[in-house]
Amino acid sequence: MALSFERFVLISIWAVGLTACLLIPADKRREGWIAFLMCQAFSWIGALLEVRLGWIAFPVREFPRATDLGVTTEFFFYPLCCALYFIFEPRRTRLMRGLYLLIWAFGLAMLDGLLSNYTDLLEYGRYAWYWSALDIALIFAVSNVYTRWFFKSSAMRSERRMPP
Predict the structure, then answer these.
(1) Whole-Å CA distances, 95 to 31, 32, 142, 146
(2) What is the pLDDT of residues 16-47, one digit of tens each?
(3) Which helix or strand (DSSP H or E) is residue 124 part of?
(4) Rounded to an integer, what distance in angstroms lies between the CA atom of residue 59 and that of residue 2?
């Protein structure tokens, strides 16, 4: 049985993603997991909506009988990128943070475009790369705000604090 190009790309995405997990410093893994899970929730819901509206399609899927979504990209790769985005985000000025977000969003939108043009993993209906960039930027920004809030509020009731 020959390995199709699409399956090779999916395996490559998993290999690159799992290798990228090694880039997460041990002291930042909790923050990375929360950002990952938050992004995963939003990207999954957003992609479900986009598929139902006919804006995008995933002709080659990992679980064609279970879901109409591409699990590798929507459930693993984009959330992992969001975790890496959050962990390595510059904490300097708002301008630097905004540029950093735009670089990630447009970089991942370019990857979406490549997947759409050269594979059957993603097919745009009434959708374009700039909508993908906007979608990714919005999901990353909301995940970032939530993750910051989560760790700010959990610091108030941390188990590590000494009782009065």
Answers:
(1) 23, 23, 17, 20
(2) 999 998 888 999 999 999 999 999 999 999 99
(3) strand 123-124
(4) 19
